[in-house]
User: Fold these one by one.
Assistant:
Number 1:
Amino acid sequence: MGAAICDTITTGSSDKAAIATYTVTLGPRDRLNIYFAEIIAVATALRNLSALPLRNRVITVLSSNLSLLQVINNPKQQSGQSYICQIYESTNKLHETGNRVFTIWTPASEQITLKQKAKAMARQAVEPFRDAKEQTSSAKTTVLCLATRKYKGQVFERVGEYTRKFDRALPGNHTRLLYNGFKRTEAGILAQLRTGMSRLNGYLYRINAADTDLCTCGQAKETVEHFLFRCSQWDQYRDILGKQTDTKMGCLSFFLGGKSPSDPEPWKPRLSVVRATIQYAMATGRLSLQTY
């Protein structure tokens, strides 16, 4: 739907074969998300129905957004609280005149004529508003998330993505084996290396805790890989890593207890290698857990 989010609400009466359609363009995608658009759609539909002289009717809300229906059924502190309140106010008003309101989840894969018509009308309605600069509402979490990711041109990896790049066994019980096999300080060092969230400049710069992402050796960005395998400042400590392998020097999976695509089944991390990696890191003092 281009740069804007639009929702179409279709209501009908089976006995009179009448259909009323309300189309609203809410605003650009950097201010809203699909959940927010659908909760506004439900609130609008029920508000319009509660204004009609309906009595003793069964009103059914169909939605392919299961999260939305769960929020309506059990509202807590989710986004869109003002619209959730509108939904309950309209529903109570409809109940006063003998009407009943139900919600039904319709998986996106199901072919429902009414839903297909609504989607087609939404696409058509949004065309004139693709470049609209104003919108009726915004989802605070969506705006903040996008602003954070755009700040200084930085794009942050989603939680766990870094670790999954070198550990194909995640999620798995091997992580318990890894961390339980070491003391608290050692486990803390391992956590820094396996998550990438460490005292190294590559990470500190991303969170605005350092002026540069360059290593103090001046040769490259200070990443976990650079720190473990390439930084010339720590050559005197690196023998302990070299003694663990003749062919896998430079392999994060091997040294951090992760499963690489070439590892056989069954597989388990080599704790002796991971221990050597931790000993190397502790010897350099670079990943000290003291306060910055």
Note: The first strand starts at residue 4 and ends at 13.
Number 2:
Amino acid sequence: MKLLIWDFDGTLGYRDGMWSGTLIEIVRRTAPDRVVTHEQVRAIPKNGWPWDTPDSPHTHLTTAEQWWDALDPFFARVFEQLGFEPPPAMRMARQVRRVFPQLACWHLFDDTIPELREFIDRGWTHALLTNHVPELPSILNHLGLSSLIDRSFNSAETGYEKPHRQAFDNVLAAYPEAEAVWMIGDNAVADVAGAEAAGIPAILVRRADERAARRCPDLHGVLAFVKI
């Protein structure tokens, strides 16, 4: 069998405003008169995402509630730096778990479904390897990807963030019969370098990062690399 391992965010789909848009939406709900811009949110030093420390697995977070609870202090600090006092900042932080996964905010790139189907017709199997939130299965189902993806390996469930070697080894172990394996993603470090360190050739899409030897501006160019 032939296996394509796909990243999700920035590769197959995206969320309106991503994380900064989520935090701004919560500010607007809490304090409608307060004006906060994407630039202000992005300017805040942030080091609290699970994927910021991929060398430290979080396999002890076994439920969605535990995963989000671990992030609440981080979000609260961001809201405090936006000018909110600690008690309301923590209440706002607790809203992120409801706002970020809102299905209406998630979309696919125009080439995602056509290219995935094209590869299936050519005999490829799709797996997903992504650093994401626990609600990913609902998002995939909403976007119509569930029927096209054979298996999903989500860091919120496995406890391993790309580029941790175990994240890739988990996928390889699930497909011991795979004779050809490729990784496709939009991050030159987490997706490309991480995969290649695990012995998986990788392709960077949607970004022009010269650290990746193989790259193309969209999914239409992937076939030229993996054609066998």
Note: Residues 17-103 form one domain.
